Amino acid sequence: MKIEILPEAQADLDDGYWFYEKQAVGLGEYFLTSVVSDIRSLQLFAGIHSMFQDKHRMLATRFPYSVFYPVEDKMVRIYAVTDNRRDPEWISERLN
C-alpha cells in the first residue's frame, strides 16, 4: 500500500511540529517522528479505522491528533492531520 501525504496535511504536520517545539526543544521532533510512524503503520492497517465524512480517522498514538485518509486503489492519501482539541466544526470544514 502506498501512502501520499497531501500538501495540506504536510502543512498540518509542520504546524504541529512548531507548536510542540515552542513548548520544549526536541518535542517537535518527537511529535513528528511519532505521527509519521503512525502514518507509516497504514501500510498494514489502512481501512480499519472508523469513518468521518467519507474518510477514515486514525487517532495518533502519543499526541491528541487525528489522521484523516481515504483508501483509493491501494493508495492511502493523507488529507489532514488535525489537533483533536480544535473546534469540531473547524475540523469538519477543514475536511471539506
Main sheet strand line-up: 2-3-4-7
Distance between the termini: 25 Å
Provide the residue-averaged pLDDT.
96
Q: Report the CATH architecture.
A: 2-Layer Sandwich
Q: Would you spell out the secondary-structure blueprint of this structure?
A:
Blueprint: E1 2-5, H1 7-23, H2 27-40, H3 42-45, E2 51-52, E3 55-59, E4 65-69, E5 71-72, E6 75-78, E7 80-83, H4 88-95
Describe this protein's structure:
- This protein has 96 residues and is of the alpha+beta class.
- It is 45% helix and 27% strand.
- The chain is built from 4 helices and 7 strands.
- The strands form 2 sheets. A 4-stranded antiparallel β-sheet has the order 2-3-4-7. Strands 1-6-5 form a 3-stranded mixed β-sheet.
- A hairpin with a 2-residue loop joins β2 and β3.
- The mean pLDDT is 96.
Compact description:
The chain is an alpha+beta fold. Helix content is 45%, strand content 27%.
Entry keywords:
27% strand; YaeB-like fold; 96 residues; four-stranded antiparallel beta sheet; 4 helices; alpha+beta
